[in-house]
């Protein structure tokens, strides 16, 4: 589902962020991406979501070659890659419902279908009763779950999360990770960048470790 | 191992795509209008500025149009009215007219007999009682002289007038069309002025709308970024801003139309009074269907162009760095 072959990413101002990254993730696989701050975790995720293009190397996502994907096709690629951010990236002046509906509205789904799918996604993250609330009225954990609902509402085959539990206490973090496992069960491929090593160890999933832009470890779960 | 469930999604067929496209347009247009109406004060101010800018050339156009209508009624005025000596009678006048008609520079000569001149004078009003007091007709015979098309400049008429005054029957002459021609020249000037003012204020409207849209884009840059993240196409992101420009244009154009119409309503009674003093039933004409269409079409186009420029400068689409 995700294939990296000798991928390099160099920034003119910061130098090499990723060096010779190669790995493959199968459909329905869930993996963690760990490493110290600045090791290149976010950069790697940004390459998959085509927020940036690699300097060198090939990336295939869901059969698409991202190096040759035309500009006009990028939105359609992003609809197949759900992204979750540490800072949630919610629209502060829109309701929970509207925030979650955004990917569907953007894709031009009919009104009725949007309502049905948004409620299904909110139900999955346990926020069905808060659909009229605006994001600032929610707790950090709830906001993150809204972000997750928005990422999965379009039923993308790939889900990326960048430090999704960065601001949450361990109990809430665990809940979020269990939520991710439920998506894995229905066949979603997940890649989660985190430095919550204790949780990573407990959950027995494949784990990539980045160090200074290199893939220094790739441990299978069990 | 799970069976791969996800395939690349097939694009919807053409009819569905069209339905989606149309639906998104309608949604975007209505949502944008709702957004503008949600903030009535800033929207109202922008619309008012556009409306006033467009009302100015619109009003000048109406003025020029009305003056032209007024002047059009005088096209039948003779170039030169030649007043004959008082002792020249109708028969002699007719003779003279026949002679003049043979001249190459003269197209037509109309003889206004003493009787008909008196009748006309009576009909013109205000003089009935004064005329009753007179025992005999004080008016001379007048020849109304219409020049050939090639002989109607003020200079040529001047020459013709001198020539006519040398006739022994002539008393004095009056050039009627010279001032009309000056009036026409002033009208032409006003028309060019309308055009220039329209272009200048049109550019102003373009800049106002462009700047308003630019600020709107900057205000909503977080929203735009998030929409790009969840897979919005460049067209989808541009659309509301283009509609906003078109709405500003339409609302501004309607405001301009309203302002001009209101001004005409206020001007109509004094104009009618003035016209009645001149025994005329002249009425002010409004913008009319064509001019209204031109005002609205140009204001919408200005809105679209202004927002298009802003959108192209400030929205680059989902560009990966």
TrEMBL record, chain A:
Residues 2-221 form the ABC transporter domain. One of its GO terms (biological process) is cell division. Gene3D superfamilies: P-loop containing nucleotide triphosphate hydrolases (3.40.50.300). The keyword Nucleotide-binding applies. PROSITE patterns: ABC_TRANSPORTER_1, ABC_TRANSPORTER_2. It holds the Pfam family ABC_tran. Its main location: membrane. GO terms for cellular component: plasma membrane. The keyword Transmembrane helix does not apply. Keywords: ATP-binding, Cell cycle, Cell division, Cell membrane, Membrane, Nucleotide-binding. It is a peripheral membrane protein. GO terms for molecular function: ATP binding; ATP hydrolysis activity; transmembrane transporter activity. It is found in: Cell inner membrane; Cell membrane. Transmembrane segments: none annotated. Belongs to the ABC transporter superfamily. Part of the ABC transporter FtsEX involved in cellular division. Important for assembly or stability of the septal ring. Homodimer. Forms a membrane-associated complex with FtsX. This is Cell division ATP-binding protein FtsE. It comes from Chromatium okenii. The gene is ftsE.
């Amino acid at each position: 589902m995700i294939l990296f072959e000798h991928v390099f990413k160099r920034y003119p101002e910061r130098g090499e962020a990723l060096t010779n990254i190669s790995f493959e993730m199968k459909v329905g696989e869930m993996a963690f991406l760990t490493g110290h701050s600045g090791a290149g975790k976010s950069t790697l995720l940004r390459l998959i979501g085509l927020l940036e293009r690699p300097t060198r190397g090939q990336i295939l996502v869901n059969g698409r070659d991202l190096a040759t994907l035309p500009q006009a096709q990028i939105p359609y690629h992003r609809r197949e890659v759900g992204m979750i951010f540490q800072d949630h990236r919610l629209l502060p002046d829109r309701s929970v419902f509207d925030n979650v509906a955004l990917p569907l509205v953007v894709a031009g789904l009919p009104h009725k279908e949007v309502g049905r799918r948004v409620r299904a996604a909110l139900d999955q993250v346990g926020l069905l009763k808060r659909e009229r609330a605006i994001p600032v009225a929610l707790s950090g954990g709830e906001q993150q779950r809204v972000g997750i609902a928005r990422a999965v509402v379009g039923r993308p085959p790939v889900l990326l999360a960048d430090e999704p539990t960065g601001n949450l206490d361990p109990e809430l973090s665990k809940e979020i990770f269990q939520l991710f496992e439920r998506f894995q069960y229905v066949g979603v491929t997940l890649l989660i960048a985190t430095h919550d090593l204790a949780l990573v160890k407990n959950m027995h999933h494949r784990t990539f470790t980045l160090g200074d832009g290199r893939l220094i470890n790739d441990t299978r779960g069990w | 191992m799970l069976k791969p469930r996800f395939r690349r999604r097939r694009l919807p067929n053409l009819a569905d795509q069209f339905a989606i496209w149309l639906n998104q347009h309608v949604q975007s247009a209505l949502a944008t209008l709702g957004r503008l109406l949600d903030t009535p004060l800033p929207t109202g101010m922008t619309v008012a500025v556009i409306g006033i800018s467009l009302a100015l050339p619109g009003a000048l156009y109406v003025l020029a149009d009305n003056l032209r209508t007024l002047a059009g009624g005088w096209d039948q005025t003779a170039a030169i009215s030649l007043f004959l000596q008082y002792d020249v009678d109708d028969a002699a006048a007719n003779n003279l007219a026949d002679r003049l008609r043979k001249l190459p520079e003269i197209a037509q000569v109309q003889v206004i007999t003493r009787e008909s001149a008196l009748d006309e004078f009576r009909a013109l009003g205000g003089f009935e009682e004064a005329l009753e007091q007179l025992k005999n007709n004080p008016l001379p015979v007048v020849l109304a002289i219409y020049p050939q098309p090639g002989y109607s400049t003020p200079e040529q008429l001047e020459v013709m007038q001198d020539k006519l005054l040398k006739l022994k029957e002539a008393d004095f002459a009056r050039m009627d069309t010279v001032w009309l021609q000056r009036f026409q020249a002033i009208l032409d000037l006003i028309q060019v002025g309308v055009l220039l003012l329209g272009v200048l204020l049109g550019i102003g409207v373009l800049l106002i709308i462009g700047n308003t849209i630019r600020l709107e884009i900057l205000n909503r840059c977080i929203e735009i970024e998030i929409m790009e993240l969840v897979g919005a196409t460049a067209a989808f992101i541009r659309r509301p801003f283009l509609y906003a420009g078109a709405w500003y244009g339409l609302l501004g154009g309607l405001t301009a139309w309203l302002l001009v119409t209101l001004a005409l309503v206020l001007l109509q009674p004094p104009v009618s009074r003035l016209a009645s003093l001149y025994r005329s039933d002249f009425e002010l004409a409004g913008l009319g269907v064509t001019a209204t269409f031109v005002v609205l079409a140009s204001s919408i186009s200005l809105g679209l162009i202004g927002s298009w420029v802003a959108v192209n400068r400030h929205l680059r689409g989902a560009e990966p760095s």
